[in-house]
């Protein structure tokens, strides 16, 4: 793996790990839930559902990235990396739009650049996975 792609994957893994912790803190209500989800969560039930989905997706993404970095004892197929990283790039593109439309100014200012960066990084990893498929 090229050093640039390794660095990109390490950056993604770090951001996802921090996001995972943030969402746990939101779930246990240490961090106010108005700070995430565009300020649109209006009940604890909605919070638990949204955070469960977020933690699950973050866990899947983190697992794929750590596997790509060979930090886990298993790996996915090249096509799984291509499809997974492409979908993650699209997901973070949609999330970036959602952050821009957030009712919470902190979320708009702080998380919009983070999700945009993740979108671009995942697009780069999808490109790397696609190149490895074309070489095979």
Structure description:
The protein is mostly helical and 136 residues long. The protein has one domain. 76% of the residues lie in helices and 0% in strands. It is built from four helices and no strands. It has helices at 3-27, 44-68, 78-100, 105-135. The protein is elongated. It starts with a helix and ends with a helix. The mean pLDDT is 92.
Strand and helix layout:
Layout: H1 3-27, H2 44-68, H3 78-100, H4 105-135
Helix pairs in contact: 1-2, 1-4, 3-4
Short account of what is shown:
This protein has 136 residues and is mostly helical. The chain is built from 4 helices and no strands. The chain has one domain (3-135).
Cα shape: elongated
Main beta-sheet annotation: none
Mean pLDDT score: 92
Q: Write the element-wise H/E pattern from the N-terminal end onward.
A: HHHH
- Helix content bin: over 70%
Keywords:
mainly alpha, 4 helices, 136 residues
